[in-house]
Design goal:
The chain is an alpha/beta fold. Helix content is 29%, strand content 22%. Strand 1, helix 1 and strand 2 form a beta-alpha-beta unit. The chain starts with a strand and ends with a helix. Bound molecules: iron/sulfur cluster. Iron/sulfur cluster (SF4) binds next to helix 2.
């Protein structure tokens, strides 16, 4: 299977805080598969580290909530970088012909169903990260690391 995976889940230190989020279940389940590491925020030109960002409007594209806007914790509008990163990521994932994307939960780029609400208070709302929604709209199945582990409970053996 051809799988696009959030690079931070693979151990790449590409998060806003210069850290990674390696996930042992994801690392096991991708063994033997063709993997494309993706990081929409790096693709969009954001530096590492950078201030934390959250979607402040347009969290859920299916709910008609209005226009997408993303800001960082310092109040700087980062919508353009996130939109650019989503497009670059979508282009790469399409070229790779990924059949599945495993994306980091709750991220303003990669979140698949839950994201922070834009108040920088740790509050989650229904919604999709900017890149995740682009992949989803293009028909690429998107799941997060927890959903992946639930979908592939015998992950250690599916790659062999
Ligand atoms: S969650 Fe997505 S955008 Fe954020 S560091 Fe991981 S891959 Fe990059």
């Amino acid at each position: 299977m051809r799988i696009a995976v959030s690079a931070c889940l693979l151990g790449v230190a590409c998060r806003y805080d210069s850290r990674s989020k390696p996930h042992s279940g994801v690392l096991r389940m991708i063994e033997g598969h063709d993997v494309l590491p993706i990081c929409p925020e790096v693709a969009g030109g954001l530096s590492i580290p950078h201030p934390a960002c959250e979607i402040v409007s347009g969290h859920n594209p299916d709910a008609g909530e209005g226009r997408l806007a993303v800001t960082d914790a310092e109040g700087i509008d980062q919508t353009e970088a996130f939109s650019r990163g989503a497009q670059v990521t979508l282009d790469a994932v399409r070229e790779f012909e990924a059949e599945l994307a495993i994306l980091k939960a709750k991220s303003p780029s990669c979140g698949t169903g839950l994201v922070y609400d834009g108040t920088f208070s740790g509050t989650l709302v229904n919604g999709w990260g900017v890149a995740a929604r682009a992949l989803h709209a293009a028909g690429i199945p998107c799941i997060d690391e927890e959903q992946a582990e639930a979908a592939f409970p015998h992950a250690s053996s599916i790659g062999g």
